[in-house]
């Protein structure tokens, strides 16, 4: 696809900031949607290389269709990264599910109106992994969808919001013919560009700071933020990209992370007690790898993450 004008939703977030950095470095003109372009927390975007000439921030809200139309007008592609991630929630339907679903549909409708050539929507592993009927010894691939009834039963509202939003996106694409590709990342780690903490960064920081007396030795599926960006850009730029793509590099446990961090940072504190977690399915990124995707070693992701946290004063 030609390098033209691309819109990125949720521009100020952890993943979207890196998406914009990569796009600008590749010569794209970028429209970024944020709630308030004048907010100081978005200063890091305006400081990116080529931002002065090629980045324009738009005041937009996922639930305000007209604001999205203004941001997407003139764009040949849209990378829909924004999604509510509030926890805990008092009213999951109002705070998570409706904004995720309606917001995604508003973006897609605005894309149809603007005659956008391709949309890459960022979903989540959460839209694939919660399926009790999937055989435990079989890695989860793109054919697996999270079971909505099961998610309701276990009250996993975030996973339900991502599953609903992605399934609605595919229904819309089927009805309208809009070219949609979805990326399903696992737990995203790596250095931050933004100044505020995000949920996945908090997971690592809690382990390093020893902020928990006890941790469960869960199976974690991990991927570096820069590798997720690479997957998003492949899905956008490669004409042969189709359907869903699971984006996960490392199957590791909480204990694995603790052990690696102990080796790399002997002075760092670690959880006093790690209790046994449940075995979970591995994730398969074979389809994405066939597209040419490769990933950063876990040790480098951890090293770059901790270096960034120290530079930003999150870790001393």
UniProtKB/TrEMBL annotation:
Pfam families with a match to the protein in the record: Epimerase (PF01370)
GO molecular function: oxidoreductase activity, acting on the CH-OH group of donors, NAD or NADP as acceptor
Keywords: Oxidoreductase
Oxidoreductase recorded as keyword: yes
All residue ranges annotated as the NAD-dependent epimerase/dehydratase domain in the record: 6-242
UniProt keyword Oxidoreductase, yes or no: yes
Entry protein name: NAD-dependent epimerase/dehydratase domain-containing protein
The organism's taxonomic lineage, starting at the top: Eukaryota, Viridiplantae, Streptophyta, Embryophyta, Tracheophyta
């Amino acid at each position: 696809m030609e390098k033209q004008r691309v819109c990125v939703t949720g521009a100020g977030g952890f993943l979207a900031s890196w998406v914009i950095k990569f796009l600008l470095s590749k010569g794209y003109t970028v429209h970024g949607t944020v709630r308030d372009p004048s907010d100081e927390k978005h200063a890091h975007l305006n400081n990116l290389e080529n931002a002065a000439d090629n980045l324009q921030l738009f005041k937009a809200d996922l639930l305000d269709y007209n604001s999205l139309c203004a941001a997407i007008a003139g764009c040949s592609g849209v990378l829909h990264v924004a999604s509510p991630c509030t926890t805990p929630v008092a009213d999951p339907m109002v705070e998570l599910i409706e904004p995720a679903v309606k917001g995604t549909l508003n973006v897609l409708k605005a894309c149809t109106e603007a005659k956008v050539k391709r949309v890459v929507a960022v979903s989540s592993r959460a839209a694939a992994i919660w399926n009790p009927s999937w055989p435990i010894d079989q890695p989860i691939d793109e054919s697996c969808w999270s079971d909505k009834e099961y998610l309701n039963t276990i009250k996993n509202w975030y996973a339900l919001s991502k599953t609903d939003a992605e399934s609605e996106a595919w229904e819309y694409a089927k009805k309208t013919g809009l070219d949609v590709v979805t990326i399903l990342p696992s737990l995203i780690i790596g250095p931050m560009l933004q100044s505020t903490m995000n949920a996945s960064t908090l997971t690592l920081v809690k382990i390093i700071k020893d902020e928990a007396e006890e941790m469960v030795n869960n199976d974690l599926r991990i991927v570096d933020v820069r590798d997720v960006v690479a997957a998003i850009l492949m899905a956008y730029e490669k004409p042969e990209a189709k359907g869903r793509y699971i984006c996960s590099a490392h199957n590791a446990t909480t204990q694995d992370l603790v052990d690696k961090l102990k080796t790399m940072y002997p002075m760092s504190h670690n959880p006093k007690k790690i209790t046994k977690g449940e075995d979970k399915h591995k994730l398969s990124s074979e389809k994405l790898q066939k597209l040419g995707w490769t990933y950063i070693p876990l040790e480098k992701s951890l090293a770059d993450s901790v270096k960034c946290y120290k530079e930003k004063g999150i870790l001393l």
